[in-house]
Amino acid sequence: MKLASLLLFTIISQLAIAQYKQAERLKNQSSLDIDKNFSIYKADALQIYHHAELGYQEYKSSALLKDRLRSNGFVIDTVLQMPTAFVASYGSGKPVIAILAEYDALPGFSQQVSTVKQPNPKQSNGHACGHHLFGVGSVAAGIEIKKLIAQGKLKGTVKIYGCPAEEGGSGKVYLVRDGFFKDVDVALHWHPSARNRVITTDALANISAKFRFKGVSSHASASPQRGRSALDGVEAMNFMVNMMREHIPQEARIHYIITDGGKAPNVVPDFAEVYYYVRYPDKEQARELFNRVVSCAKGAALGTETSVEHEIIGGTHDLLLNISLAKLMYKNLEMVGGINYTTTEFSFAQELSKTLNRELIVPNKVETFSLLKESTNGSTDVGDVSYTIPTVGVNTATWVPGVAAHSWQAVACGGTDIAIKGTVNAIKTMVYTAIDLYTQPKHIEAAKLEFNHALKNYQYKPLLGDRAPALNYRD
Asked: How many CB atoms lie within 10 A of CB 155?
């Protein structure tokens, strides 16, 4: 009996060693191939950088990524409800590994590579969150995995999910809700950053909505008594929400912009609109806070003798971490390492750092893996994917350390080789992690076990309800 057990242990150990060696050989092969294609990634990323299309309007960006995938043998499925979304597949059978791609820009930013803020009169949108890199990097990772499947060195399926409108449009939520991830085993993603780290921070659940007030127009000076100002309704709502801040948990975030406040000061506006985001670490409490904001809107309408209705625009879950996958991805990120700057890149980074009032630190190291509680205070529709399948992500330094997302400095970095170098590191980290998942099934088994334990009896329900995608939410 002891001899049989020893024999079995020896066989299992030898199999594990063989799987590990196979994975290392494939990683080395992929690394060389990824480095060789640097110029291709750069060209694609810069094209999308200059397209700078807003959420659900990413027609050129989506087409570029689909063409790249199609030319590499992927089968492209469109998503009828979202014209700029897609699912690209290669291979067959299990496991099925998904890689998430984003490519939407933000309004209010121009595309200039400069160490000083220089508005571009020809451009009003910008990739201030680096999604031009995100999309290209994820597609490139999928293509590298496809090559290994085509060569017979990996078995299974790889799927690239083209996810539009992450910035407020909740594109992934519709893909989750409509069952596009139902056969996937694990999802991988990344995000441009000023850091090299595996994502172990949480994200805030988020519900966004536009509140539309209607009143009665009138001459603001000659007959103000006849008017009922929709803008008064908006301002009264904002005032009440701002008073409410004293009586909400400190982890909550509520912010808004007035998207329509009328057209002329001498006309009492009969229409006004305000756009709200409500965030909280827990999805259910985010819903409760949002309901309190709705009550403020109703009270404001009552007090100003106007009417109000609201439309939920987006809604995303918090992020469900998978520690076993995070540890696996961290080992691969360590293998890849940070990035070093050339003399020219160092000079650019040093000048940009002056606008941040900080000394430059070259991001040539990877942050130590940590599970200490840390929140980004941001939101992402990756959260909904993470409540559907085991999910893991990585940040790489595509921006100069200290640069914040949604800033002109992030836009400036996004058009440089610094950004492409960080993208290459993200590609390698995702490909290496995928190789481990394909060649060593124990990693997927551990991830699913942890996922099911964390999920418990929770039944996924999207925070945006059953509405159709808000394709015109940027209008």
From this structure: 14
According to DSSP, the β-strands at 391-397 and 186-193 are parallel
* Alpha-carbon span 232 to 237, nearest angstrom: 8
* Secondary-structure percent of the chain, ordered helix, strand, coil, rounded to 5: 45, 20, 40
The model's pLDDT over 200-226, given as tens digits with 9 standing for 90+, comes to 988 999 999 999 999 999 999 999 999
Over residues 181-194, mean pLDDT: 97
Q: Is 111 helix (H, G, I), strand (E, B) or coil?
A: coil
Task: For residue 100, list its beta bridge partners.
Answer: 161
Residue 471 to residue 475: CA distance in whole angstroms: 9
Question: From the CA atom positions of the chain, what is the Rg in Å?
Answer: 24
Q: Cα–Cα–Cα angle for 444, 447, 450, nearest 5°?
A: 150
Residue of 432, 452, 462 lying closest to 145 (CA atoms): 432
What residue has token string 């999802």?
187
Tell me which amino acid residue 235 is.
E
Q: In what order do the strands lie in the sheet containing 205-214?
A: 253-260, 271-280, 205-214, 307-316
Strand order in the sheet with 157-163: 75-78, 86-91, 157-163, 96-102, 186-193, 391-397, 197-198
Cβ atoms 74, 89 nearer than 8 A: yes
For tokens 């910035």, name the residue.
167
Mean pLDDT of all residues in 357-368: 95
pTM over 0.90: yes
Give the DSSP H/E element, type plus range, for residue 332: helix 323-336
CA 302 to CA 233: how far, in whole Å? Answer: 9
Widest pairwise Cα distance in the chain: 102
Q: Which two tokens stand for residue 118?
A: 């220089």
| 391 and 366 Cβ atoms separated by less than 8 Å | no
CA distance 97 to 74: 14
Q: Which alpha helices (DSSP H) does 182-322 contain, by range?
A: 230-244, 283-304
Q: Among residues 431, 333, 335, which one has the least CA distance to residue 137? A: 431
pLDDT in tens, 36-85: 999 999 999 999 999 999 999 999 999 999 999 999 999 999 898 999 99
Distance CA 304, CA 222 (A): 20
State residue 1's pLDDT score.
57
Instruction: Report phi then psi at 161, rounded to 5.
Output: -100, 110
Residues 172 and 382 sit within 8 Å (Cβ to Cβ) = yes
Of 25, 46, 225, which Cα lies nearest the Cα of 130? 46
